[in-house]
Write a structure and sequence with these properties.
This protein is elongated. Strands 2-1-3-4-5 form a 5-stranded parallel beta sheet, with helices on both faces. A 5-stranded antiparallel beta sheet has the order 7-6-10-9-8, sandwiched between helices. A 5-stranded mixed beta sheet has the order 12-14-15-17-16, with helices on one face. It is built from 20 helices and 22 strands. It is of the alpha/beta class.
């Protein structure tokens, strides 16, 4: 590992973030290393602190109120007082557009959340060392230029300075022949003074350099101008033994007594190159770990959803059986089974969402969303839950009777459902939950979820948005995983929003988030009304005979499908257990519809679908995917291929029958 900074306390780091948790993590991390640390929670404060204290490095969040990180960085770079301070962006996304914008506004580097201790420390050390080097080189060039004005009377002092400078310094005449080198240059290149003098500058440039670098060095020797004219560039130097040494070098022209000289200042950056290799290796390892985690979660989701399909499918059929109705106790017990199964399913979905947010794979589709309609839908869904908990659920929008926000409809609904359901679960009997909205001075929409519940103690408030934190509720009977608020925060930020809370133990909490206002357009949010529908939708009395081919290898899933479709007597169901047999049967039978599992023993369903579409006999038969592969990218990929629908297990019987009715 490269050597550490000798005196961390001589370096001041400014942390700019509006999230107390992020500030706390970074503050402790920097203080533990011995750095002096200052903190700002918004843009104007950050600009004042930076201008007054001139920190050596700034760690800057992107998503913040008042001014985002891009605007703060731009202001810093436009001010000559703070323009040289390196800025490392802390970002929740690794999308190329966000990264490009970070560099375009003057950023030095970026770190993708979640924060990893070793990565942060390595990058901070790297940029502090680099900044020290840049300042040192700048000071050296300044010294050399000042000395040049009084060179005749200052030869002794010049040599003394050169002899004690840690960076390599060489002077070459207009022919490129080395005239002077300091001890540091001799040490870096491995020569004695006698061995190196009278050689030309290009002798010390390793052949592994690009032809462009070598051509520009010759141009600098001849004209004093070119790629290296006063600019710091990386190249490979050539040692006495022929080996290469990575250097950072600048060449400047100096005129003395009407003679032109080239002054080169360089230093060995082997340690920095080692850091860079370690950073690349760490990033690749992190990406591999993230990919492995995503693959594991995808497989586990598939394996868990398959038995859940049987549990929930047969449970729904029993609840909807009008021929042999259940007794009250049987119906109640089945509802308990169904509730527990749906809870398990929601845990699976939450873990998948969290993984996608952390890896940057979760995508959102932003557009104008009618907040009033969405809130009405959320309240309608959660009213039974509020009634069971004896909680009053109210909406108080005041003058904002027509509010549109720029958001992803499904993800915004997920955010509201989570915050409101938390307000209900962690409330007191006969308490209340109030949804309200206001327009901020900046024109954004702020949504508040106020409860009269238990509140959050101060010792837990810094952990509210961290993963797997129950905030003391783990000792209660209230169900939860501790990741809902972490997911909610990630979703809000993906929609260009901010989130926060206020809480007092024993009194209640108010969680709020802000989103950009959306245009009140003719866009319509089409949402299915959710309710406690317990009867199977009826098909038309004169429905025509229909043939459906079901390709599935799981016997329990096959039996479930037979029982579901028994509610459609006009449907003739044919079942095959392999993809190849399914293709052959489709060619021979020409069914009206094909239901295709994706995970099949001989060939995956996607490949089988392509073969069906390539065959003139079967290319026009609609195919619906029925699978336990529930990742969003899997569904999107299948629909892009041309599947008529993509149904994830466990099957919702009512929704499934409606899809079948529409398809046939």
């Amino acid at each position: 590992m490269p050597e550490s900074i000798q005196d961390p306390s001589s370096h001041q780091i400014l942390i700019v973030d509006d999230e107390p948790t992020n500030i706390d993590v970074l503050y402790r991390l920097m203080k533990d290393q011995g750095y002096r640390v200052s903190v700002a929670s918004d843009g104007p404060t950050a600009l004042r602190v930076a201008s007054a204290s001139l920190p050596d490095l700034i760690l800057l969040d992107i998503v913040m109120p008042v001014m985002d990180g891009y605007a703060i960085c731009q202001e810093l770079k436009q001010d000559h007082i703070t323009s040289e301070i390196p800025v490392i962006f802390i970002t929740g996304t690794n999308q190329s557009d966000a990264i490009n914008q970070a560099f375009a506004t003057g950023g030095t580097d970026y770190i993708v959340k979640p924060i990893r201790r070793e990565e942060v420390l390595t990058r901070v050390k790297f940029h502090l060392e680099r900044q020290m080097l840049l300042k040192r080189n700048k000071d050296l060039i300044g010294h050399l230029r000042d000395i040049n004005l009084n060179l005749k009377s200052s030869q002794t002092r010049l040599h003394a300075i050169m002899d004690h400078v840690a960076d390599g310094i060489l002077v070459a005449n207009s022919e490129g022949i080395i005239d002077t080198l300091n001890p540091a240059a001799l040490k870096i290149l491995g020569y004695s003074r006698e061995e190196i003098l009278s050689h030309t500058l290009d002798h010390f440039i390793h052949e592994s350099n690009s032809t462009e670098i070598q051509a520009n060095i010759f141009n600098s020797i001849k004209t004093g101008q070119g790629l290296l004219d006063g600019k710091r560039v990386e190249l490979v130097g050539r040692r006495k033994d022929g080996s290469g040494v990575p250097l950072e070098m600048s060449l400047s022209q100096m005129i003395l007594e009407e003679n032109k000289y080239l002054v080169g200042i360089f230093n060995d950056i082997s340690n920095r190159k080692l850091w860079e290799r370690e950073l690349i290796s760490a990033r690749e390892e992190a990406e591999q770990n993230s990919k492995a985690k995503s693959e594991f979660l995808s497989r586990m989701s598939h394996e868990l959803r398959t038995p859940m399909n049987s549990i929930l499918g047969f449970t729904q059929l029993m609840e909807m059986n009008e021929v042999s109705p259940l007794t009250g106790m049987q119906k109640q017990n089945l509802q308990r089974v169904s509730s527990a199964a749906h809870h398990l399913l929601s845990l699976i979905d939450e873990i998948l969402d969290l993984s996608r947010i952390e890896s940057g794979q979760l995508k959102v589709s932003l557009g104008p969303v009618d907040l009033n309609r969405l809130i009405d839908g959320v309240v309608s869904i959660l009213k039974p839950m509020a009634k069971d908990h004896k909680i009053s659920l109210k909406v108080a929008l005041g003058d904002l009777q027509s509010i549109f926000v720029q958001a992803d409809l499904l993800r915004l609904k997920q955010v509201l459902l989570n915050l409101v359901s938390n307000g209900i679960k962690y409330n007191k009997e006969n308490g209340s939950v109030i949804l309200s909205a206001t327009r901020t001075i900046e024109g954004r929409i702020r949504i508040n979820v106020q409860d009269t519940g238990l509140g959050i103690s101060k010792e837990y408030q810094a952990l509210v948005f961290q993963n797997f934190q129950r905030l003391g509720a783990e000792s209660t009977s209230i169900e939860g995983t501790g990741i809902g608020l972490a997911i909610t925060k990630g979703l809000v930020e993906l929609m260009n929003g901010t989130i926060g809370f206020e809480s007092e133990e024993g009194t209640g909490s108010c969680f709020y988030f802000e989103l950009p206002a959306g245009e009140n357009s003719h866009f319509s949010n089409k949402e299915a009304k959710e309710g406690n529908v317990v009867s199977i939708p009826k098909s038309g009395a004169t429905a025509k005979k229909t043939t459906i081919l079901y390709v599935e290898d799981n016997p329990v899933n096959i039996e479930l499908m037979r029982q579901i479709l028994s509610n459609r007597p006009q449907i003739e169901l044919t079942v095959v257990k392999t993809a190849i047999t399914g293709i052959q049967k489709a060619q021979a039978l020409s069914p009206d519809l094909i239901l295709m599992d994706i995970q099949l023993p001989d060939m995956d369903g996607l490949t089988a679908f392509k073969k069906l579409k390539d065959d003139p006999k079967t290319k026009d038969i609609p195919v619906i995917a029925i699978t336990a592969n529930a990742m969003l990218y899997q569904a999107s990929s299948a629909l892009d291929m041309g599947f008529a629908a993509y149904i994830t297990k466990p099957i919702d019987v009512i929704s499934f029958l409606r899809i079948i009715d529409n398809a046939i």
